Amino acid sequence: MSKLNKDILYLIFEELQEDSKSLFSCLMVNRPWCETVIPILWRNPWCYKGVKYNNKYYLFIIISSYLIDDIKEFITEREIQLLSGSNKSLFFDYLSFCRSINVNAIKSIISIGSTLAYNQFFMQQEFYYFFMKKCPGLKYFNMRSIKHQIIYFPEAKARFESLCELNCDTSINSIYFYGLSQFCQFIQRFIIVNINPKPNHGIVKLIEVQKNLKHFEWKDEFYDEYLTEDPYKDIFLALEKNANSLNYLRINLQYVDGIENISLQKILPKFYRLKVLIFDDYLIFTYKQLEQLKKQVYHELEILNIEGNTLDVIYSIIENSGNHLKKILFRPYDIIYFDFDDFYVESLIFIHKVYENCPSIEYLPILFSSSKEHFIEFEKLLKVCQNLKSLLLVMFINDEDDYNKNILNYGEELLKILIRSAPTNLKEIRFNHRFKFSLENLEIFLEKWKGRCALSLFTNDSIYSREDYTKLINKYKIDGVIKDFEYSRCLDYCI
């Protein structure tokens, strides 16, 4: 492995670009490995977490090593602190590999040299000036809290033309976005954090000029009950112009009194190529909007996550999808709240619609009643959906007396169904506290599970932290039947 030529190594390391820990371990193998990994790591060096390389002191040494000759007089006059090693030659020309700017990360790194705002601002300005000369082309730009007018540097047009990903917020002056719109027209991933209740027309313009926008996220981080202008309307009208390319849409709107939420009737039907549709929990749907959601048709949809709605909306979209769904995500307890009166019927229909329309489903929450019909439909689903990797099972009890009498029987029945019919790919089960398994039944289940994928089990029932259960669980961890067993208050999927 260590003797593979650099071209082969490069292809292998490219596949690991999201796995920073593995890449960092490769640095220490030998020099050819190190020389191959460094350019990959330094494409976006500000993004790595939990590894030593992200230590800002090391990054400060590298940055100051580039700047020290150009601003030596300023550093001396201002008594800016340089760390040991800042004046040494670098092993690599790191910035020549870099394709990203993260304003907050760079600000944090450079602040090591001085606590004075002016000194920090000047050094940041010098860094950006040098970086824009050095960088062959930007791919990633996180400009949140930016104060420097780097788009007016002589090299800006050549550097920003290749920008693929932009992360920004609405507090930034519109003029900045007007400038970017002149030469950033092929952004593929656009993430906007809305912290200013007033419309930002510069962002609107930048969205309008895009020619290949695929991924769009909007997240509200403000609340203003006296809002007089709609901050959403122009943004989403501009987004419509990208309907032919957009395949990822994630929206998180906070409820604003007096302002009608985004008009789903006008916007959503246009995004016919969506593969990912996510509405986070702050979005408040009106009855009319919920009815419209039921009619949406997305033939290429793979991930669906719409919070704050009802099961009939979810299974209607499922029924109208093109049988490509891999993940259906929602918070079950919220669904129970919204569907309380019709839960029994709606949950049965939901399970039926899934196995009828989602042969490729991999991640799925299922709401149970303790009825025989629910267990029958659940087993049908397991037999049809052979790609299932993860299940989130939540039982809703409408007859407490019956449940208390048969509490262990329901758990036993669930385990029997899983042994009989669970697909071979299933490797994770999340179950709420309503599913109770006796020590004996759990051991029988785990014994029969041997030879399959090692299971990760998650529960919000503290009984499994008891000594007898812990002993049993540890035994099957050693045997390789259980990969993880965790107690957590929150069982919901995160995306």
TrEMBL record:
InterPro entries: LRR_dom_sf (IPR032675). SUPFAM superfamilies: RNI-like. It comes from the Eukaryota. This is F-box domain-containing protein.
